[in-house]
Specification:
two-stranded antiparallel ribbon, 10 helices, binds magnesium ion, binds 2-acetamido-2-deoxy-beta-D-glucopyranose, alpha+beta, single chain, 2 domains, binds adenosine-5'-diphosphate
Length: about 325
């Protein structure tokens, strides 16, 4: 096998090839990727959806756990009286999140941290309502007046703790390149969903470094990813000239897209009005870093990384 490869390499350099080697290499990569996907499709025959989960609920309703029917989102009244906080499980700039109990089921209660960020909070609720699907965490109810909402609780937490989760004895069997590549594909599908959402092209703005990005997605117990924190999802519409900026401050670092960096050099002080706006391609730029994290460093993941990104990484 190795000899054959070497032989064909020599063949390349000796013969006159009208196609530039780079193009050939690219073609080979594309073919490899197609083969990889075909192989994966073959390996992962998804189980037929169990009757209960098959049909999505109509807008304004939800179904979780063992519930047979779709039920309307809980109102302020039910949130105030029917939900018992158990313990705090997370906090960001906008929300404080509590593991809670509602009708003997574990749920996540998110509470606005401060009135100053109420606008972001309400934007997040609006997005959660409009984007209910397999790609987004399940909404159970909300109360805009109180600055609260209720979602499905995911005990495995966010993608930030993926490595710890996969190291638990219970989940070690899932720590393979197959499962991790599935997560990466899952992630790309979510980005694609946000970019082609019912509300238009939405950009995941709250993602200025890898940890931040990972903390906006939850890992479900069935080992899928769902988008969770939707507070910063501005809409892009190129046909009417609507571009976006992720915040009003200067962004720095390796993780953000090049077009998110101040383009006028270090000598020129940052000035928000002069900063050119951009579009959803910022999300695309970040995919390799996130996908590489999801692939991790297990047997076979470097091979997958090589096929996906062409450059082998240490
Ligand atoms: N449904 C949930 N299940 C489990 N943990 C959650 C859930 N929702 C949020 N969390 C935890 O709370 C943290 C903060 O939630 P998030 O929605 O990102 O708030 P913020 O908008 O303030 O960043 C998350 O990073 C996660 O650790
Ligand atoms: C984008 O803007 C155009 C022009 O205003 C409009 O017709 C179109 O519906 C918008 N697209 C979306 C997805 O809202
Ligand atoms: C462009 O379209 C988006 C929806 O896609 C809308 O939110 C925005 O207000 C529109 N802007 C203009 C200038 O028409
Ligand atoms: Mg967050």
């Amino acid at each position: 096998m190795e000899k054959k490869l070497q032989g064909s390499k020599r063949g390349f350099s000796q013969r006159e090839i009208p196609i530039p080697p780079a193009a050939l290499l690219l073609l080979a990569m594309v073919l490899m990727n197609i083969l990889l996907y075909l192989y994966l499709d073959h390996v992962f025959v998804s189980p037929p959806p169990s009757g209960v989960e098959a049909r999505p609920c109509p807008f304004g309703t939800f179904r979780m756990g063992q519930m047979k029917n779709c039920s309307p989102w809980l109102s302020c009244e039910s949130l105030r009286t029917g939900v018992r906080k158990l313990k705090r499980v997370g906090e960001g700039a906008v929300k404080r999140v509590f593991l809670s109990e509602w009708k003997e089921q574990k749920v996540a209660l998110s509470q606005l941290t401060s009135p100053e960020v109420k606008e972001d909070f309400l934007h997040g609720v609006k997005m959660l309502k409009s984007l209910q699907s397999e790609h987004v965490v399940l909404l159970i109810g909300y109360c805009e007046d109180d600055g609260t909402f209720l979602t499905e609780y995911h005990p495995l937490g966010t993608l930030k703790t993926l490595e710890e989760t996969l190291n638990l004895p219970k989940y070690q069997s899932l720590n393979t390149w197959h499962h991790r590549l599935k997560l990466a594909i899952n992630y790309v599908n979510i980005i694609n969903y946000l970019h082609t959402s019912p509300l238009g092209t939405l950009v995941m703005c709250d993602s200025n470094d890898l940890d931040k990005m990972l903390s906006q997605y939850l890992l479900t117990s069935s080992f899928r990813i769902v988008a969770n924190d939707l507070d910063a999802l501005p809409v892009v519409n190129k046909s009417n000239g609507t571009l976006i900026k992720c915040g009003h401050r200067e962004l720095v670092g390796e993780f953000v897209a090049p077009e998110q960096l101040w383009p006028y050099g270090e000598e020129t002080p940052f000035y928000d009005e002069r900063m050119p706006p951009y579009d959803e391609k910022t999300d695309i730029w970040k995919i390799p870093d996130v996908a590489s994290f999801l692939l991790g460093h297990v047997e076979g993941s470097d091979v997958v990384r090589f096929h996906l990104f062409e450059i082998p990484q240490a």
